[in-house]
UniProtKB/TrEMBL annotation:
Domain of life: Bacteria
GO molecular function, one term: oxidoreductase activity
SUPFAM superfamilies from the UniProt entry: Flavoproteins
Lineage: Bacteria, Bacillati, Bacillota, Bacilli, Bacillales
Domain Flavodoxin-like fold positions: 1-158
Protein's name in the database: NAD(P)H-dependent oxidoreductase
Length: 185
């Protein structure tokens, strides 16, 4: 079965990192279903049953999003709250749709990897900041497989273009590594 990649970026067309990762995924429609939440639900009203059926029809699930204020975009939080319901995603004998499902995250940051550490500017690792997602999926008895990250280079002009995006070459490498990450879930 295919992998469902739920992309949650409020303006994917102007994104550099997430847009490039989606372009790479779209080259292989036989392997990946790309589901853009902001495009599907511009009004924020999520069709819960439709989303649940979509998840059920895929073996693996990847949530792809930019880190916003050290968390996910609001529509992804709403998706998690609305879709992972008691009796479907967890909590009862019939609520097992997330049980053993392989789940991973794919995140992008505007910050260098070094800044995500106890010695860095933000004092916490990306693993620590993403722990609530891991906890959520463990609570649903999913098979959480960690995360793939594309770090930005805030303030590092040698490695980035002027607006903190990774260089084209680095982004091309990371896009191919992303597919390998998903394929090994």
């Amino acid at each position: 079965m295919k992998t469902l990649v739920i992309v949650t970026h409020p303006n994917l067309e102007t994104s550099t990192i997430n847009k490039r990762l989606v372009e790479e995924l779209n080259k292989f429609p036989e392997k990946y279903t790309v589901h853009d939440l902001y495009k599907t639900y511009p009004d924020g009203n999520i069709d819960v049953k439709s989303e649940q059926r979509l998840v059920e029809s895929h073996a693996n699930l990847v949530f792809q999003f930019p880190i916003f204020w050290f968390n996910c975009p609001p529509l992804l939080k709403k998706w998690l709250d609305d879709v992972l319901t008691y009796g479907w995603g967890y909590g009862s004998s019939s609520g097992n749709q997330m049980k053993h499902r392989k789940v991973a995250l794919a995140v992008s940051t505007g910050i260098r990897r070094e800044e995500y550490s106890s010695d860095g500017k933000y004092k916490y690792s990306l693993e620590q900041l993403l722990a609530p997602f891991e906890t959520t999926f463990h609570y649903c008895n999913s098979d959480y497989r960690s995360f793939f990250a594309v770090y930005g280079k805030e303030g590092d002009e040698a490695s980035t273009v002027e607006d903190n995006r990774p260089t084209t070459n680095l982004l091309e490498v990371r896009a191919h590594e992303y597919l390998r990450f998903i394929d090994t879930l």
